[in-house]
Design goal:
Length: 140
């Protein structure tokens, strides 16, 4: 039996997701604070360069996106996980992660850098912290 308080969510691979729709979701998820939403061409390149783009929709409305880069053999970098704040805490992010890992191959290690506000979320759904991640900042 379905829970009437939870929206019916349809998940799909959408490699041709429109940059405008992705930007709108980034804003509604608060991830826009850390993404170049003012540069639609860059967002378009980000989507085109992804190996996996998974979406979650309530009807036609985009409520979640997972964007990943993977070799389908050893590692999968989950570059973006965005869920509309109005439907967070309903399992959509967890399901997007599960489906992303499944699409990339469960024998890959799933890797992500947590947004500051999401640091407590990932351990809650079973991800483990790693103490030796290193980055080289982008130069814009």
């Amino acid at each position: 039996m379905t829970d009437p308080s939870r929206p019916l969510v349809a998940y799909a691979r959408e490699p041709q997701l429109a940059p405008e729709e992705f930007i709108d979701l980034l804003v509604r998820s608060t991830l826009a604070e850390r993404r170049p939403v003012g540069d639609p061409e860059r967002i378009e390149r980000m989507l085109a360069g992804a190996d996996i783009v998974l979406t979650a929709r309530c009807g036609e409305r985009l409520v979640g996106v997972s964007r990943a880069i993977t070799d389908f053999a050893y590692c999968t970098y989950l570059a973006d996980l965005a869920v509309d704040v109005h439907v967070q805490r309903q399992g959509i992010g967890k399901e997007l992660i599960r489906r992303t890992h499944e699409a990339a191959g469960i024998s890959t290690m799933l890797i992500l850098l947590a947004a500051p506000a999401a640091r407590e979320y990932y351990p809650h759904i079973g991800l483990q912290p790693h103490d030796s991640c290193w980055t080289l900042p982008r130069s814009q």
